[in-house]
Design goal:
GO terms for molecular function: prenyltransferase activity. By secondary structure, the protein is mostly helical. The chain has a single domain, classed as Farnesyl Diphosphate Synthase. It has 7 helices and no strands. The N and C termini lie far apart (38 Å).
Length: 151
Amino acid sequence: MTVLAGDFFFSKAFQTTTNIGIPVMLHIFGTAVEDYVRSYFEGDLRQVDAVDAMWWETKTNFKTCSLLASGYKAATMVGGLSQQEQDRAYQLGKHIALAFQTYHETKQFLDTSFSAGLNYDVTSLPVVLHMETHPELLKCAQEGKVDQLKF
């Protein structure tokens, strides 16, 4: 049922975008949806030899940033702003999403009331940075031995 509801909302969003009369917006939002789906493949630890901050940023750009940044760009397109201003809006949306995701992922390590009893995402920035300096942890994560990791 959830998948059908999501499909309904996507179809309505694309229909509304088409009615605005700026066909390139369909491409922008379609690319954002494609990026979101790609994030699940790009973010798979079993498929990489090493992780670092650039790997995290790429994964996060696909998963989180692309949709927000595309929304910012689309707003400037509807407003009739120049291509340069559209590109700036896209970069602004991307950096806001990166900042939000960084805050969200580090909060669980800094706020004990927030993190009590939670499982950590092994692809979060603090864990990725730790794995960058301790590559043996990546091997444990790839083998599914996450419960044995000590941070």
